[in-house]
Design brief:
Elements lengths: L1 H23 L15 H10 L2 H4 L16 E3 L2 E3 L17 H10 L22 H11 L24 H8 L13 H13 L3 H4 L31 H6 L4 H10 L10 H9 L6 H11 L6
Antiparallel strand pairs: 1-2
Amino acid sequence: MVAVGRLGLAAVGLIAAGSAALAVWPVGRPVKLAELEGNVERGAYLARAGGCIACHSDPASGRAPLAGGAPIASGFGSFVPPNLTTDITHGIGTWDIADFAKAARQGISPGGDPYYPAFPYAFYGHLSDQDIADLWAAFQTVPPVAEPEPANKVPFPVNQRFGLKLWRAAFLNVPATEPQPDKTEAWNRGKWLVNGLAHCGACHTDRNLLGGRRMEARLAGSDDMPGGKTAPAITPAALARNGWTVHTLAFALKSSVAPDGDVLGGGMGEVIRQGTAWLTPEDRRAMATYLMDAGDD
């Protein structure tokens, strides 16, 4: 019995030591940005394409745009997109552009803590220094809102953020946005948007028990969406089987109207209203072009 007790104490000690080591293990890389002038208009466009307004705004709450989004329910708890206004207490008013770049491209807070992957930073790693400069310039024009968003409701042990360091090591994938020389400019632009900034795979790819995307089933749909919702497959085969074409898909990304006349609602409706409907016709067609011909890319 004494031996068992000592083994138990030793195991507890090892777990505690491991947890302490994990807590102080640094993640992220130093940020070195080129000195570039940001374009506010282009930054606002990128913010729309990236879903920033849709996710970080909650009109039903009465809060101003970008002052915090509606809670995202998941099997790991409820996550609330934070206040992205320039308020110095509740928003990002004390950040600099390097803080912003590290948050967007690496998923690391100014204090060095990893963000929960409810924030789709895994899809933003391809953003260039100019993209970051433009986005930062746009966010600097957002009026401050001195209002905290509701707190996350996350149970133990998920609320121990240091555990996310292991999650990142296992599941953080670089977005596949590099152009293919044998494809058209529109196809490559669509790839950059779909696989990166517009982060279509965040919803349309199923996840494993630990919340990592099942990359072998990329864009093949998910039945584990917030609130018990589902996201359909948007692979080329699935889209063709359901009657989609490049033209009808590009039209739906503007209008929410599907080929059969049905209206896309729920989360996709929000993505369209606050995101893709604001894109240029060329970019919507580029996304449709890529999705209808992604193949094994």
